[in-house]
């Protein structure tokens, strides 16, 4: 496995794949078949479904390769988180309520990648409607971490992260509402990017928290995430929150020296609650960058402590209204047609949603109810404004913030399922970026004492993704 014509296909990147196609080492069809073989033998439960048309797509790509219609992404395989729609393919959102749902249209982000020639292998497992930090909330069973199958891959894009780490695909899409790309990237030792809010169209991504959600790339290298974002990014009239500004150039920047970037270290992200190995690994990276001549400044984000609390008020409020659409009347799970309307709703929603979705729907309905709206929702919105202002102030002084991605490396399956608050704490370093609408990148930098990957996070102001790619690529090549 993982060999074609004696060529190793582990940890593939876009450049390596294109070089292999050009040299005639293997075709897109051969590569796709090998990935399918690996997916069928996979023990991590990373995929929910396979694209029935994938071999035809691969053959078409082979015909385009070498012609002037080929792009750098032609024939590059990709997996898509099952919360993102791909026309005529099962799209479940990790939920029983949509377990038989076939999408009637394709998400804009996916369409742009398809138009560039990418080949969709299939749909990856995820927490139900992207709610979770461990992938244990999927109706299709938990995903296991390829580095240690007794541990979680992170969530909610755990299937996408595990699929890359297990060499089942070189690239995957995830969604990030509070850390769901970055936290699993960190746990699985791959690279993941949460773009600025509005940078990538949300059209065709099932809404969890509309004011926080973003689709983003996950891959084996920083450069690959830049390639993918470059194609996905940009205005889409079908998404009212899509940014009208043109996206910057994410690839040419990789050739430039990032030393002029000033790096900020927010002291609130280095408390004693972090696992020792993680803290040491990040501090070592900071020392390395200092010795390379980077200007590094300590900064303060004084509202950091409130970000998680604000997130866990804003998020369920929006979840409760977004998930109201799943009632089984137009699509999804159905109930006995003889039931009254009320009984129908009750049956479909109580059997269709898992425990975490129900918890958040109830919490959100409570937060938005008369009498509590001002006390909780409005207050959380005010905190959101303060957190945004905090970042805006700091980004006047520095270009990039450098932090740990998560307080610990991957934890054991079952360890936190019965303690939601402990589970929520694993997002403590990632949620602020969503609350403020800025962009972030996580890349692997070290291993802990158990040989589990440790991720480092870089944050930049809204629409400054090129800074993440520039510094991220430099750090990746420093190792
Ligand atoms: N883990 C967080 C949550 O459960 C983030 C989810 C996400 O980013 N989709 O809400």
Can you give a write-up of this model?
A hairpin with a 5-residue loop joins strand 12 and strand 13 (453-460). The chain has 479 residues and is an alpha/beta fold. The two termini are 28 Å apart. The protein is 38% helix and 14% strand. The site of glutamine has 15 residues, from strand 6.
Write the SSE topology.
Layout: E1 3-4, E2 7-8, H1 14-23, H2 28-41, E3 47-50, H3 54-64, E4 77-81, H4 108-115, E5 119-124, H5 158-165, E6 171-176, H6 182-188, E7 191-194, E8 214-219, H7 222-232, E9 263-266, H8 276-291, E10 296-299, H9 304-322, H10 341-352, H11 355-367, H12 373-397, E11 400-404, H13 420-425, H14 431-436, E12 439-447, E13 453-460, H15 465-478
Parallel strand pairs: 4-5, 4-6, 9-10, 9-11
Antiparallel strand pairs: 1-2, 3-5, 6-8, 7-8, 7-12, 11-13, 12-13
Helix pairs in contact: 2-3, 5-6, 7-15, 9-11, 9-12
The site of glutamine (GLN) has 15 residues, from strand 6.
């Amino acid at each position: 496995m993982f060999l074609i014509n004696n060529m190793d296909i582990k940890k593939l990147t876009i450049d390596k794949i294109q070089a292999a196609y050009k040299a005639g080492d293997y075709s897109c069809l051969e590569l796709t078949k090998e990935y399918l073989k690996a997916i069928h033998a996979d023990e991590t439960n990373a995929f929910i479904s396979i694209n029935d048309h994938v071999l035809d797509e691969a053959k078409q790509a082979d015909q385009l390769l070498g012609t002037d219609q080929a792009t750098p992404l032609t024939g590059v395989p990709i997996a898509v988180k099952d919360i993102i729609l791909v026309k005529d393919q099962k799209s479940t959102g990790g939920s029983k309520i949509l377990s038989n749902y076939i999408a009637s249209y394709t998400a804009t982000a996916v369409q742009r990648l398809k138009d560039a020639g990418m080949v969709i292998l299939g749909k990856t497992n995820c927490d139900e409607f992207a709610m979770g930090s461990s992938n244990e909330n999927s109706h299709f069973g938990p995903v296991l971490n390829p580095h240690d199958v007794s541990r979680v891959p992170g969530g909610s894009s755990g299937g996408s992260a595990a699929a890359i780490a297990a060499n089942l695909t070189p690239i995957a899409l995830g969604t990030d509402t509070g850390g769901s790309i970055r936290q699993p990237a960190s746990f699985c030792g791959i690279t993941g990017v949460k773009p600025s809010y509005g940078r990538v169209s949300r059209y065709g991504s099932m809404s969890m928290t509309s004011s926080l959600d973003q689709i983003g790339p996950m891959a084996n290298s920083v450069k690959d995430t830049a390639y993918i974002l470059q194609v996905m990014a940009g205005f889409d009239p079908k998404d009212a929150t899509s940014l009208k500004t043109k996206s910057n150039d994410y690839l040419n920047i990789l050739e430039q020296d990032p030393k002029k970037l000033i790096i900020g270290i927010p002291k609130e992200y280095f408390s004693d609650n972090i696992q020792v190995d993680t803290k040491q690994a990040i501090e070592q990276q900071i020392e390395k960058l200092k010795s390379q001549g980077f200007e590094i400044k300590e900064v303060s984000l004084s509202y950091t402590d409130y970000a998680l609390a604000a997130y866990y008020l804003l998020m369920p409020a929006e979840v409760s209204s977004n998930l109201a659409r799943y009632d089984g009347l137009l699509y999804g799970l159905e109930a006995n047609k003889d039931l009254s309307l009320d009984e129908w709703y009750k049956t479909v929603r109580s059997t269709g949603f898992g425990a975490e979705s129900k918890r958040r729907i109830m919490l959100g309905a409570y937060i938005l109810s008369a009498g509590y709206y001002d006390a909780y929702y409005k207050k959380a919105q005010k905190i959101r404004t303060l957190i945004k202002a905090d970042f805006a102030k700091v980004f006047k002084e520095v270009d990039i913030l450098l932090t740990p991605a998560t307080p610990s490396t991957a934890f054991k399956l079952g360890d936190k399922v019965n303690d939601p608050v402990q589970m929520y704490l694993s997002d403590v370093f990632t949620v602020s970026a969503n609350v403020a609408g800025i962009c972030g990148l996580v890349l692997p930098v070290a291993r802990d004492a158990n040989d589990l990957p440790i991720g480092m996070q870089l944050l930049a102001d809204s629409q400054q993704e090129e800074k993440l790619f520039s510094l991220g690529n430099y750090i990746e090549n420093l190792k």
